[in-house]
Amino acid sequence: MREHGELVAQLTDEVAAWLPSQRWFAGKDRPISAVRPLSWSTLLDGDPLLLHVVVEVEQGDRREAYQLLIGSRQAELPDVPHSASIGLESGLTCYEASGDADLTSCLLDFMSEGKVVDGLTFEHEPDAELATGLRAHPITSEQSNTSLVYGNQYILKLFRKLTPGVNKDLMLHRALREVGCRHIAEPLGSISGELDGGPTTIGMLQRFMPDAVDGWVMATTSVRDYMAEGLPPEELGGDFAGEAARLGAAIATVHADLARALGVEDGDQDDLDRTVQAMLARLDRVAASVPELVPYVPRLRTAFEKVAQISGAVPVQYVHGDLHLGQVLRTLNGWLVLDFEGEPAASFAERAALRSTLRDVAGMLRSFDYAAQQLLVGQPEDPNDTERAMAWSTRNRDAFCDGYARVAGRDPRDQSDLLRALELDKAVYEVGYEHANRPDWLTVPLSSIARLMTDEGTS
Ligand SMILES: Nc1ncnc2c1ncn2[C@@H]1O[C@H](COP(=O)(O)OP(=O)(O)O)[C@@H](O)[C@H]1O
Ligand SMILES: O=P(O)(O)O[C@H]1O[C@H](CO)[C@@H](O[C@H]2O[C@H](CO)[C@@H](O)[C@H](O)[C@H]2O)[C@H](O)[C@H]1O
């Protein structure tokens, strides 16, 4: 089909060896059996060369599509991290090019010009005028995709694992912008290609907030202060509870905006039954690959089955789907919510499904636990540290729920069975996520499950 297919085909073994060391590669739980190119586009020709490549990664019965930006030069590796090097092929140095600012500026230029380049469509949103010629650097914070910041003005997220169709992140950002939501970074452009015969979003451009700090950084700084000082949380300079309450209020506002933009449906018993089935299925799936989860399975099942007995309808709507502290940014003007893509491992249908807003509340409550516990990872067990970490978590979880309740007019803690089950379901998801992505962190969700199972999960 397009030029440079031979180079792409020759690189597959090198790509297979290189993928497992990439933070964004979500298949670290199984060996790779094959890598096959699905499509490639030449974005810059000559020396250097920039190729956009979609590969299918086969791991036993699992097949997933990932996108790569491959740079290739006759010279040695340019100034990019050593880990970017993929291999030498036909005398060319081939490397992951997202860190090569000489190559990546064309992505913004193409969006600004609204170009179609070798099968990829670059667009700006109808009312957006984009600057050109800006150089980009990849962000360094924890993330499942790869984001490039252009001149402190724009941020382009390249979705690594691809699912066919318009990405939910882009779809919900557009809907929220339509209703004037104050808590999102404005969507400005997108890149799409083709996967499984249909147009598929591969990148989204948004306004970059240079003055922003992400919630995870703020929260973990506060935890560190708390663990180091030995003072009650409210006496600390870095107390996070006020922010946690404002964050709760912002999330309730985003939920109301999503409902205004895209509607709310009355949930029924079938919805609850489906929720329980999905929780049980996820539990079985994760327990089958993570033996450490197995002892908790019977009690987790009981907590999930309780959801089917909830009386009264639980309304459903579009929600964020994977809300945590790394998905929210504190700017000078308040909290912004990022990344409405949903859980990276979920299928397209799961991400598109309407859900209870409590799912997002549960996600954020889990994140307060994570922030509190991450300092303990790899440390010898000390009950005092654990107690302090949990005190920080409880204080901030309560503040978040208070802020949410003030705006929503209903307190999420009032639906305790559903909230607890959703939190446990999220923790089960995290066990699977950590097992596949960050095995060293597996103890974080596992210890939460152990605790939630013994203390009946009061928040
Ligand atoms: N508009 C923005 N302005 C400033 N920083 C941003 C913006 N969007 C994302 N970020 C930074 O990038 C990080 C990852 O973004 P996110 O959309 O959550 O990516 P991923 O889906 O890969 O996890 C965030 O935690 C935040 O630090
Ligand atoms: O941000 P993503 O959409 O990529 O979400 C995935 O990665 C997250 C980690 O980067 C992961 O979140 C888990 O770790 C966070 C700390 O790094 C913590 O705040 C979250 O509560 C915890 O779930 C997320 O689950 C995963 O889908």
Description:
This protein is an alpha+beta fold and 459 residues long. The protein folds into 2 domains: 102-207; 213-455, Aminoglycoside 3'-phosphotransferase, Chain: A, domain 2 (Alpha-Beta Complex). 40% of the residues lie in helices and 22% in strands. The protein contains 13 helices and 18 strands. The strands form 4 sheets. It has a 7-stranded antiparallel beta sheet with strand order 6-7-12-13-10-9-8. Strands 1, 2, 3, 4, 5 and 11 form a 6-stranded antiparallel beta sheet that branches. Strands 14-17-18 form a 3-stranded antiparallel beta sheet. Helix 4 packs across helix 6, helix 7 (269-289) runs antiparallel to helix 8 and helix 10 crosses helix 12. The protein is globular. It starts with a helix and ends in a 5-residue tail after the last helix. The relative contact order is 0.10. The model has no long low-confidence stretch (mean pLDDT 92). It binds adenosine-5'-diphosphate and the ligand O=P(O)(O)O[C@H]1O[C@H](CO)[C@@H](O[C@H]2O[C@H](CO)[C@@H](O)[C@H](O)[C@H]2O)[C@H](O)[C@H]1O. Residues 139, 141, 143-145, 147, 155, 157, 185, 206-209, 212, 214, 326-327, 329, 338-339, 341 line the site of adenosine-5'-diphosphate.
In short:
It contains 13 helices and 18 strands. It has helices at 5-10, 12-18, 101-113, 168-178, 215-229, 241-262, 269-289, 297-305, 348-352, 358-373, 383-408, 416-437, 443-454, and strands spanning 34-44, 49-59, 62-73, 85-89, 92-96, 116-117, 120-124, 136-138, 146-150, 154-158, 161-162, 187-195, 198-207, 213-214, 264-265, 316-317, 328-331, 334-337.
